[in-house]
Structure formats: C-alpha cells, structure tokens
Specification:
Layout lengths: L14 E8 L5 H11 L5 E5 L12 E5 L2 E4 L4 E4 L4 H9 L7 E5 L6 H10 L3 E11 L3 H5 L5 H8 L4 E5 L6 H12 L5 E4 L27 H9 L9 E6 L6 H10 L4 E9 L5 E7 L2 E6 L19 E6 L4 H25 L1
Parallel strand pairs: 1-6, 1-7, 2-5, 2-6, 7-8, 8-9
Antiparallel strand pairs: 3-4, 4-5, 10-14, 11-12, 11-14, 12-13
Length: 346
Amino acid sequence: MKATSLHKSSKPPQVPMTIIGGFLGTGKTTLLNHVLSHSIGIRYGVMVNDFGSLAIDESLVAAHNGDTISFANGCVCCAMGDNLVASIDKLLASAHRPEHFLVEVSGVANPKALADVATLHPELSRDLIVTLVDAATVGERLSDPRLRDTIMMQLAPADLIVLNKCDLANEDQLQEIQHNLTAHHKGKLVRTINARLPDDVLSQKSLQPSQVHDGIESDTISNIKTSWTHDPEAQFHRATLDLPESMDSEVLTALLRKHQPTLLRAKGFVNNKMGQRVSIQLSGKRVDISPSHYSPPDTDTHNPEHETPAILVVIGLDSLDRFRDEVLGVNNMVDEGATRNQRNSV
C-alpha cells in the first residue's frame, strides 16, 4: 500500500489589486490616506508614487524602513519607485503578505496599463479600476481640448467613478456632472467629500456582476483608446524646484495663484512666516497649506539638518520657465533689498 501524504502543497490565494486613478488633484492620495488610517480587518498593501504627500499620523506607524511604512492596523505602504512589479513581489514575499493591493496611478497616466500587471502576474488578480473626478474642475477640464483626451482615457476603463469634492459644487452642478459621466457608463458612481470612501467599496464584492465591465462605451472614447499610442505625460511640463530659503508659504501661494491658469498641480514643502515647515498643494484653483507630516526615514526631525527639504514639484500645460524664474528670483529680490537697506543706513 502506498503511503498517502498528509501535507499537500498549496499555493497561497491570489491577491486582488485595485487601481486608483484620476487626473491631477482629484484626491487619489487623500483616498489612500483615509484607507491607511481607518482600515479595519483588511491588510492592505498600498503602493504610492512617493511618501511626500501622505498625511501620516505617526501614532499609527509601527515601523518605517526605507521605502516601506508598516502600520499598527496591519497595512503596509510602499513607494513603488521605478519598478512596480519588484515592489509588489517584495511585499508578497514578506511575513505580513497583503490581502489586497491598492495602487496609485500617476495623475496623467492610463490606469488600465497598471491593471494589466495584475492580469499577467501569477499571484495577483485584477480587481476594480477606480477613477476619481474633481467635481469643482471636471467641467472646465473636459472643455479644454488639451486635457479632455487624457481625462476620458482615465474614465474609459473605470469600474467605479468617485465624484469627489462634492462640497465644492451645488446640487444642480452635481446632477449635471453625474448625468454627463454616467450617460455612457455602465459602472457605478459614488459621491464623496475628502475622498472618504468605505473600504468595502474598493472591491468587486461591492458591485453587481453586471457593473464590472471594460469601461465607457462610445465611439468618441473608443477612438481615443485606439489612437492613444504616445506617452500621455509628454504633453505636460514638469519641474522640480529647490525652493530658496527666503521663500515662505505666503509668497509661494501668491505665485501659484498668479500662474494658476497654466499650472495643473503643485506639491511641496516650504516654511511659513514662523519658520515652520508646512506642506503646500495646488489642486485646481485651491491652494492648501497644512502641517508637514512627512520626514525622511531614520532621521531626527528636531534636527534642522534632517527636516523635510524645501522643494516644489509642479506640472503645467505650458512652459514652466517663467514660474521657475519668479520662484528662484525671490532670493535675488531679498538680497537686493538687503543691499539697499545697508546703503541707506550708511
């Protein structure tokens, strides 16, 4: 009689992967912040472009090791860097294997491209593509021929549309936006404020089978999808600026508002009038300033040499040369003013 093995080798179940997409400033990072802070019962692996814009509550952090942050609720956040698959494989091989991946897509990228990673990876399963829309700016941006194709490209594969920032539009405007978005869309649409979306909505389990689909069906969008062969980021201008020490949040806010018509998004860190490092963001027509929650890992945040660098990442429709020159010229204006004061005191 042959002995029967009592220990059958079995592969771990595939991990579902949800893609979080949407145009610049629609609230993707805000959504992920909410998930990381409030998730109970699901061990998420959250993949972000960088930690800089995450408003992380340090009391929830169990460990911060290089490009990975572990949370007390079991969630793990990882900066994906240049190789998403390698970052995912690292978490899959870890002792605390995620039960569900949430992947943040660049604000001008096609979310379907990353969803295809889950389809091809043997340890992953493709879950939802979630596309966020800014209720305050979507109408204006869809009317702009330079932006329309990109936004429609992001909406096309969406299983779930999140109409965010609903507090910035009245009910008539929301009804019109919702009608336009759902006219050719068979999926689900939910409204949110501050991207506060329940965890269970981020999975296919929350949708009826008929609601999980390939996206919007229309000739216009079909043509966009088949003709989109170039890099979508190529039509935008991007710059990373090391801010002058003399720059403060009030001056930078004024410059951002002055150039707002051509600036799509800005994120960074700068000092306020009291010399405290703060986070500054331009999203649509709003400039938001909040305390800086981010610091490089393994550093003493009380040491000025280790504080978050004063830096600004900007994305615009047109050349950023004039904006950059005005930002970097702040030091020169301060120096010239100091020189004049010295001469007048002699």
